Structure formats: structure tokens, C-alpha cells
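Anyone up for a design puzzle?
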């Protein structure tokens, strides 16, 4: 029998195991989506127990000797340049990491996430950090146990980054953020006193939802495969192929829901356009958090805050919100939704101040893990850092340390990928403009298919076939480079 013939049964056996694990992951995502969208608050403890059982069971099934032996044989047999070779590489990487972690710890982390998010909901609603404090302390305890499984790491934070961004190191993040921080602070100060009129509400929720629907339809929303729901903290989810779930948060005091809807569309379209042959395998998801964020920020900012987009959509939005926007001309509106305005909330931040919100969180995560900032001091440190970086005073915990849910779910190492996504988005955008021409004119006609198809071909369809640095080089010809992003900001906010 040929080498290929002998390898095929092993490859099929591996895919059988991975398909079962993907199905379990599908169930976990449905449970998580339901918990964050529709589950009664009192169900959190029971749901967390179910999540823990699933997580521990899945972990035990994955880290078996059988999977390890299959991977060892297939690594020698499969061409790394093929999709099957990529599947073996990605699975081997996951198996090597998960093998170091006890299955009961995987279950404990899932359980702590479920009850932690519920506690965060309650704490934020009450604006009381004390409610959340023991859950954050629990998450840090679990993270230290998790990091102890990787004693070989040069920097413990590298282990956390590697969960979301393959091969990324803390030193690389520090280099990029170090380049950005001074420039961002300078831009904030330069534009702090810009005269930009506020948009006055109220903005009726029904009209905002209709606006979001119109934009999604223009972008390529498919009602047979997509849905949009309300949640306190917007997110996107793909439990399985053909099942894209976006969420947004709508408030009649502002129109930020439109931008969060476009942001989550960027995540959803990436997952939707992955090659369906990768379904039920580790290749059937985006390759990394930063690449994912590059796409959510592309659709939110590079498309959704462009002048061309608003030449097309502003008349429609005015028609939906005549009392609030009838007397506001298009140029004034575009300035208002793009202006540099130092504020409290990361999710509502403009394109300049957003990066400083992320740098603050990156610094605090490292300090919390190192013990140089204690959990009980976190609100005060947060507030002082916000005053230092953005010159804003935090009025309460809900608008400060409790605004994001990430730490309640144990997502340490995730925040840096948001700002790296901003950087990468402009790198990819430049290549798109080079190849596609004047995208602004297409947007002004309500045409977004050319951009979407280019992104599908260059990024989306590949799923996790290529490691993030390789994918970025294939598309842009370089690694992560903050210079195009800084040039974009300086040009836009000149």
C-alpha cells in the first residue's frame, strides 16, 4: 500500500474525533449564546455546571494518547502545504497545549466563567465592584494554576497571548504599543478641544433597529443563516456552519448600536465565508483574534465611518430619525460620529482614543497577574490611569472597571488583539484599495460586494489554514506594522 493509502485511514479517524469535538463545541456555544442573550439570571449557576461538564469531557476526549499517536504519524505523512497538512499542524498545536492542562482545571475554568459573567452582570447593574471582586480573584487564581502548566514560557503572559494569537509574544505587543502610545496621546491632545456639535437624541430604538437591518442587508446579510439579538455586551457567535448569531446593544440616548452592529457583522462575515469543507474541524474558524478584529474594525470604521458610506446611507438614516437628524447636515453628522472625544467607554470610543483604552487594559492585566496591582486596588488604579491617559474622570464602577465582561470570563490576553486588529485592518485595507480602486465611490452607491468578495478570497475562506503571521504576509507582504495605521489616523484627523 502507498504512503498516501496508509495515511488515509489515520486521517479519517482523526477527522472523526475532531468532528465529535466540534459538535460538543457547537453545544457549548449554543449554551453560551443563550446564557448571554435569553437565559434568566438565576439560571447562571446551573448553566455554569453544564458548561464545566462539557468542557472537562471535551478536554479528556481530545488529549488522549490515540489523538497524539495519530498526529505523530500524520505529521510525517501529510504535505504541510495542503489543507489536510494544515489541519494536522493546527490540531497538533492545540493538542500540545491542551495536553499540559489537567482536564479538571479545564472544567473549573468553564464553571468560573459562567458564574463570573453572571456576577459581572449584577455588579455592573449595581455599579458595585465589591460584588465582582471575589470572582476576579478566583479567575486570577485559576490563571496562575493554568500558567504553572507552562513553566518553559519566557514570559507567562506569552502563554495567554498564544491562546488568541499564534506565536505572538509580549515583547512584540510592547513594541507595537510603545510605538503607538505617544502618538495617540499627542493626537488626543491636539483634538481635545475640537468644536464638534453633539448629536441630540432621543433616537427611537425601533428606528435604530431598522437602520441596522438596512445596513446588514446591503453588506450581504442572509436571513436564512443569520440572526441579530440584543445583549448588554455585543458579541458574535458561530455555533456551526450556516448559523451566524450577531448581537448589539441599543440605547435611545445614542446611535452606537449601528456601529456595534457593523462591528459584529465583520466577525460574522469572516466566519460565514469560511470554506464549508473545513466544517467540524479546527480549520473551520478564523485564524486568530487580531485577524478577526481587523475585520470587525474594517466594517465598523474603514467602511462604516467613511465619507462614501454616509453619502449613501445618511439620507436613509435621516428618514428614519427625522426629529433627531432632520436639521443635521451630512458633513456635520460625519464629523460628529468620527470626532476625537476622550470618553469613558471602550466600546464607544473613537478611532484615536480606542487604542489608549486597550493599552490601559494590557498594562493592568500584566500587573494583576504579576501581583503589582491588587484586585482590591483595581478601581482606583483604573481611574487614575484613565485620568492620566485620557484626562477623564470616572464617575462610578459601571463606567470604569466594570464596563467590559472579558475578565469575568477569564479572557486574559484577549484585549491586546483589539488594538492589533486596528493596526492590521489598515494594512489589509491599503492592499484592498491598491487592487480594487476607489472603494469610497462604490460605498456611495451602496455597493459593498466587491470588497466583501475580495476579503473572502484573501482572508475569510481560508479559516485557520494559515497561521496569522503567514496569512498577513500573504495578503500584505509584511508582518504587523503600526506605521500604515498611524499614517491613516494622522491623515484622517489632520
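Challenge accepted. My sequence:
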Amino acid at each position: 500500500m502507498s504512503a498516501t493509502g496508509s495515511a488515509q485511514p489515520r486521517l479519517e479517524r482523526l477527522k472523526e474525533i475532531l468532528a465529535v469535538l466540534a459538535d460538543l463545541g457547537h453545544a457549548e456555544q449554543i449554551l453560551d449564546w443563550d446564557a448571554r442573550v435569553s437565559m434568566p439570571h438565576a439560571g447562571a449557576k446551573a448553566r455554569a455546571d453544564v458548561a464545566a461538564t462539557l468542557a472537562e469531557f471535551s478536554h479528556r476526549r481530545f488529549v488522549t494518547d490515540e489523538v497524539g499517536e495519530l498526529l505523530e504519524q500524520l505529521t510525517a505523512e501529510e504535505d504541510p502545504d495542503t489543507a489536510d497538512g494544515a489541519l494536522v499542524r493546527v490540531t497538533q498545536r492545540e493538542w500540545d497545549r491542551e495536553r499540559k492542562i489537567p482536564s479538571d482545571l479545564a472544567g473549573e475554568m468553564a464553571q468560573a466563567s459562567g458564574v463570573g459573567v453572571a456576577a459581572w452582570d449584577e455588579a455592573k447593574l449595581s455599579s458595585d465592584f465589591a460584588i465582582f471582586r471575589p470572582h476576579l480573584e478566583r479567575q486570577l487564581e485559576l490563571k496562575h494554576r493554568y500558567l504553572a502548566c507552562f513553566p518553559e514560557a519566557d514570559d507567562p503572559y506569552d502563554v495567554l497571548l498564544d491562546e488568541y494569537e499564534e506565536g505572538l509574544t509580549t515583547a512584540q505587543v510592547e513594541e507595537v504599543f510603545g510605538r503607538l502610545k505617544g502618538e495617540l496621546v499627542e493626537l488626543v491632545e491636539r483634538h481635545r478641544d475640537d468644536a464638534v456639535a453633539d448629536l441630540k437624541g432621543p433616537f427611537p430604538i425601533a428606528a435604530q433597529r431598522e437602520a441596522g437591518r438596512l445596513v446588514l442587508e446591503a453588506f450581504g446579510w442572509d436571513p436564512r443563516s443569520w440572526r441579530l439579538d440584543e445583549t448588554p455586551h455585543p458579541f458574535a457567535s458561530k455555533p456551526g456552519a450556516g448559523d451566524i448569531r450577531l448581537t448589539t446593544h441599543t440605547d435611545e440616548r445614542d446611535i452606537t448600536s449601528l456601529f456595534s452592529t457593523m462591528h459584529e457583522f465583520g466577525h460574522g462575515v469572516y466566519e460565514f465565508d469560511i470554506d464549508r469543507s473545513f466544517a467540524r474541524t479546527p480549520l473551520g474558524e478564523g485564524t486568530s483574534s487580531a485577524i478577526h478584529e481587523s475585520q470587525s474594525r474594517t466594517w465598523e470604521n474603514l467602511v462604516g465611518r467613511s465619507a462614501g458610506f454616509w453619502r449613501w446611507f445618511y439620507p436613509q438614516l435621516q428618514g428614519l430619525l427625522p426629529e433627531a437628524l432632520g436639521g443635521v447636515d451630512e458633513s456635520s453628522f460625519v464629523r460628529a460620529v468620527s470626532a476625537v472625544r476622550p470618553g469613558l467607554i471602550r466600546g464607544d470610543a473613537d478611532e484615536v482614543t480606542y487604542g489608549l483604552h486597550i493599552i490601559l487594559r494590557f498594562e493592568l492585566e500584566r500587573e494583576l497577574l504579576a501581583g503589582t496591582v491588587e484586585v482590591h486596588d483595581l478601581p482606583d488604579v483604573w481611574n487614575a490611569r484613565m485620568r492620566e491617559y485620557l484626562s477623564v474622570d470616572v464617575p462610578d464602577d459601571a463606567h470604569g472597571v466594570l464596563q467590559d465582561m472579558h475578565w469575568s470570563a477569564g479572557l486574559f490576553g484577549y484585549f491586546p488583539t483589539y488594538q492589533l486588529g486596528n493596526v492590521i485592518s489598515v494594512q489589509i485595507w491599503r492592499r484592498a484599495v491598491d487592487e480594487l480602486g476607489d472603494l469610497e465611490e462604490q460605498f456611495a452607491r451602496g455597493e459593498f460586494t466587491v470588497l466583501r468578495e475580495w476579503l473572502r478570497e484573501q482572508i475569510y475562506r481560508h479559516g485557520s489554514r494559515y497561521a496569522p503571521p503567514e496569512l498577513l504576509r500573504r495578503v500584505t507582504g509584511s508582518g504587523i506594522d503600526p506605521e500604515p495605521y498611524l499614517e491613516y489616523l494622522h491623515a484622517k484627523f489632520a
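A detail worth pointing out: Residues 1-5 have pLDDT under 50 and may be disordered.
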